[in-house]
Amino acid sequence: MSYPDPRYLRNQGEISARYRPAPQEPDTGFTGATNISYVASEKATGGEYGLYKVDMGPKTMGAEEHFHKTISESFYVLSGEVRFYNGDRWITGGEGDFLYVPAGGLHGFQNDSDEPLSMLMIFSPGAPREEYFEKAAEYVERSREELKAFQVRHDTYFTDMLDR
Question: Which 3 state secondary structure label does DSSP give 144?
Fold first, then answer.
């Protein structure tokens, strides 16, 4: 394996790093049993990746079995335990564990434990996931057709919505 083709072609480096202090509160309206903080949105990284911190309360459903056609998704557990669906079976991940899901890979996650969970979630390449996080609960209350269109628009395909 080799490095990708250069995307920066100058012979001198430039001042382009961005620093963002830690927010005091989650960045989204997606709060309650699950809080999602936008560490680095696709907008902040120029579409290279999206990095989000997910804090889930005890006994909290995350995402049922699904897949993405255009993005990979990775999870890194900071604290607590998470139940991951790896496409074959549910497994328990704990602090320091990592799960990589390539595009097309079935996956899901939830917090079955009696303790809170904190993990990082990475999408690559970056995708505009913020609207999905902020409006998913709203669309669950709408018609099945509107919900499915919203999910497809956000490259999220739940196995129960597929025509088999």
Answer: helix
Q: Closest Cα partner for 96 from 82, 110, 113?
A: 82
Q: Identify whether the C-beta of residue 56 lies closer than 8 Å to the C-beta of residue 62.
A: yes
Q: Which residues of 11-32 are buried (b: 16+ CB within 10 A; e: fewer)?
A: eeeeeeeeeeeeeeebbeebee
Are 122 and 50 in contact by the 8 Å Cβ rule? The answer is yes
* CA dist., res. 148 & res. 144, Å (int): 6
pLDDT exceeds cutoff 80 at 164: no
Contact residues for 75 (Cβ-Cβ < 8 A; gap 6+): 82, 84, 93, 98, 99, 101, 109, 119, 120, 121, 122
Q: Does domain 34-159 have CATH number 1.25.40.10?
A: no
- Whether omega before 6 lies within 30 degrees of 0, making that bond cis, reads no
| Strands (E) located in 2-149 | 34-40, 50-56, 60-67, 72-79, 82-85, 90-93, 98-101, 107-111, 117-124
Per residue in 33-84, pLDDT (tens digit) is 788 888 888 888 989 999 999 999 999 999 999 999 999 999 999 999 999 9
